[in-house]
């Protein structure tokens, strides 16, 4: 798991996830979601969890992904308003 994370290779991380699922090692699957968080694609994880009926193991990861996405959207929506406010202050 550490090797997959440090490799910065999406394919290696996804192969490791697939191996954990083949081996029915769902606890390691869940741990790998956080260890390789920035390498994994949420749509792939959601599909794999759904196909293997282990949504409970993937849900903490999916909640974190949704939180990150909504924070980015909120930031990008507020940025133009903040910029205009700063320009008016000058």
Folded structure, characterized:
With 90 residues, the protein is mainly α. The chain has one domain. It is built from five helices and no strands. α2 packs antiparallel against α3 and α4 (42-51) runs antiparallel to α5. The longest helix has 35 residues, at 55-89. The protein is elongated and about 60 Å long. The N and C termini lie far apart (51 Å).
Q: What is the mean predicted local confidence, pLDDT? A: 89
The helix tally amounts to: 5
Strand content: under 5%
- First and last CA, distance: 51 Å
Biggest sheet overview = none
Q: Given the C-alpha coordinates, what overall shape results?
A: elongated
Q: What is the share of helical residues?
A: over 70%
| Count of strand segments | 0
H/E element sequence: HHHHH
Poorly predicted runs of 5 or more residues: none
Class of secondary structure makeup? mainly alpha
C-alpha Rg (nearest Å): 18 Å
| Domains (count) | 1
In short:
This protein has 90 residues and is mainly α. Helices cover 82% and strands 0% of the residues.
